[in-house]
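Dear support,

I submitted the protein below through the web form. The confirmation email said the job was done, but the results page showed an empty box. After a refresh the structure appeared. I'm attaching both so you can tell me whether what I see now is the final result or a partial one.
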Amino acid sequence: MNIVEIKDLSFKYAADKNRAGFALSVPALALASGSSLALFGASGAGKSTLLAICASLQKGFAGSVKLFGTPLNNYKRGTDAEAVSRMAILFQDAPLFNCGVYENISIGLQIRKTPRAEIKKRVDEMIEKLNISGIAYADAREISGGQAKRVCLARLLVLKPELLFLDEPFYSLDAINRSQIMHELKRLSAEAGIALMLVTHDKNEALALCENLAVMDAGSIIRYGDIKSCFNNPMSETEARLLGRNMVFYGRVAGCRDEVAEIECGNETQSMKFQAAADYKKGDKVCVMISPQDLSVSPAEDETGAKSPASSALNCFEGKIVSAAHYEFGMLLNIITASGAVFQAYITSRSYDSLRLGPEKKVKIFIKATAVKSFLMP
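What the results page shows now:
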């Protein structure tokens, strides 16, 4: 059963000058009961607008939007109460009330006039499941950001929603809290059969929480499907860049053997050959896409002048590190090859130090054929 169902949806911000050029257009989209969907894309793509329409927060759209089988009223607020009562929303900024943690978690149940004994049972269970018993009777104004997010989540889950909308709720959290809370949410939603619709531009969030992906760009969904398939096999340059495969090359197939294609990219002054796990015909025009996570880097020579050891990877290029920058999980290297092609590679800080890498260091880049993604060009 589909609990969210969209057909021929369109929307424009008529009165908002800052969004005058924006138009949302979604011919079809559905979210099944108990499933999960990430709305993924850059800022301004329309992710939050689409979520707001599905959650009955944004009116003025054209087309059909159904929530739990009920067509949402496009004009009047507060007319979709029955369907809305079966869902909950967690925003990026979800403030707590100026009272205790326990009272914050129970307030929704109190509004629904739930019996006192049932309130206590549900709240106590949720406090235990989210590991916040140590702050259960603390003042909500005196807890940390990670604790506050857990309390907000408990306040929603205690209502036993069938659908949870998430609009970049982990954006302000540090990496440790973000990872822990996402793991807890994934576990609790799976146990309760809660469907999730997540707005994010973070690949790790999408992969951690969702099984399906809708890639959005300029108000449209440009790809929909199984999340791993979408990330591993982009079908356009725009999609590839949005999904993190920011190294894009164009070329033609020089030959194909044993389902490995040799693809010549570049021009007369800057040429490269890639070995890609693909089955094409000679002369096919293709787009090649590579992710920084899929590159292995080693010094071209060690301290004694010995060459770096051979690799089983079919693609090997020599280059020079032009810059190295810290990022959340290590280092991001920018490497230029003799042909002028620029590669980016992620490497752990430990590997960066142990290999004595740095700007101007000559290196070898290794890429497996299975990591070289490609698609046919028109």
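Response: this is the final, complete result; the empty box was a page-load delay. The longest strand covers residues 315-327.
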